[in-house]
């Protein structure tokens, strides 16, 4: 059994993850289906990351033209500071109601293309499993 399989067996059922890929030369990741789950954290896997904050795009469908940038209630693009090999806690309230999600290296105004392929791990919590 490999490391990934061993690790997956230790993760509680209410906490799952999805991996997003950013292709070398691009700034926007693949998308994932979030559904009714809460985003709790994001990991920057690997020992390299071209310096940039992360911003997010959301969509009711997985159609490219439907993705919109995520903003807070003050009109600011929601951004988190990241670096290689970091586990970053997210504000789950910022992502409520999102069905499909993408992550961007940089902002909508200044995307930062990554110079190599990158993997981001998004941690998701099933709200039905939370203790009331």
Could you explain the architecture of this structure?
There is one protein chain. This protein is mainly β and 132 residues long. It contains one helix and nine strands, in the order αβββββββββ. The strands form two sheets. Strands 2, 4, 5, 6 and 8 form a five-stranded antiparallel beta sheet that branches. A hairpin with an 8-residue loop joins β4 (54-59) and β5. The N and C termini lie far apart (36 Å). The mean pLDDT is 88.
Instruction: Tell me which CATH architecture applies here.
Output: Sandwich
Question: Alpha-carbon distance between the termini?
Answer: 36 Å
Structural class: mainly beta
SS strand fraction: 25-35%
Spatial extent as radius of gyration: 15 Å
Oligomeric status = single chain
The main β sheet shows up as:
5 strands, antiparallel
CATH class: Mainly Beta
Work out the helicity level.
under 10%
What is the typical, i.e. mean, pLDDT?
Answer: 88
The CATH topology label is: Jelly Rolls
Q: How many domain units?
A: 1
H/E series: HEEEEEEEEE
Based on CA inertia axes, which overall geometry fits?
globular
Q: Low-confidence segments, ≥5 residues, pLDDT <50?
A: none
Task: Please provide the count of β strands.
Answer: 9
Put simply, the count of helices is 1
